[in-house]
Amino acid sequence: MGQERALNDTTNITFCVISQKYSRHYIYRFSCSKSLYLLGPLNPIRRFAIFVITHRWFDILIILTILANCVTLAMIQNKFEDDGITKVVPDYDYYTDRIEYAFLAIYIMEMVLKIIAKGFVINKYSYLRNRWNMLDFIVVISGLVTTAIGDDNKEAGNLEVLRTFRVLRAVKTISILPGLRMMINALLSSVVQLLEVMALTLFCLMIFALFALEVYMGKLRQKCVLIKGGPLDPNNTPIHPNDPLRDKLWTE
């Protein structure tokens, strides 16, 4: 009975998919339990989603989309006021909005395919169990909320913070490139180990700052000022404000 129950319980059973990307082989792990309580490992829809997200051209498409989206974000023209009237270039604003919808649709497609292939949050290797996928999820949801509200809605002014999440779309590149993701994870892990070194460095800076404060406090009050007819004035005459030599005549 115990063995049969263990075989029927697929929560902790996983399977791997090996994919070749960038002249290397990468291993992707998935749970054998049903994705979204509907799609098993052999379900054609889930198999298609796994095939797509593990294919190298899928990563290339997402990377190109992120780069193009960064360019369009830099080209967005904000509305401005002139004599109390809000103005913006109509055609420019129209096309940038449509392009933004296209980028958001690609990000939604990526998220849906990964949720179908991995599951949402229940299993160990599901979509939201990955920290980088959590960042992608926040970016997509914030984009959906701002798109649903719209710029012309009265409540749109309260959602400016959500629009700033669009800047995080460039960080999605880290979740796509495995090598870059490994480097960032190693860097973040090393920060914990370097806390003592950072504390020692901060302590040394505080010592030198206090030393300089005690030594030079009240000593650096003198400064050079321009005096009309001063010792460095060649003719000892008042200096006109538009005189080209005005900035070159200083007292000792």
TrEMBL record:
GO biological process, alphabetically ordered: membrane depolarization during action potential; neuronal action potential
This protein's name: Sodium channel protein 60E
Keyword line: Glycoprotein, Ion channel, Ion transport, Membrane, Repeat, Transmembrane, Transmembrane helix, Transport, Voltage-gated channel
Major localisation: membrane
Pfam family for this entry, one: Ion_trans
Domain of life assignment: Eukaryota
Natural source organism: Orchesella cincta
Localisation per UniProt entry: Membrane
Membrane topology per record: Multi-pass membrane protein
Gene Ontology molecular function, alphabetical: voltage-gated sodium channel activity
UniProt keyword Glycoprotein, yes or no: yes
Cellular-component GO terms for this entry: voltage-gated sodium channel complex
Domain Ion transport: 55-233
Residues annotated as transmembrane: 57-76, 101-121, 133-150, 191-213
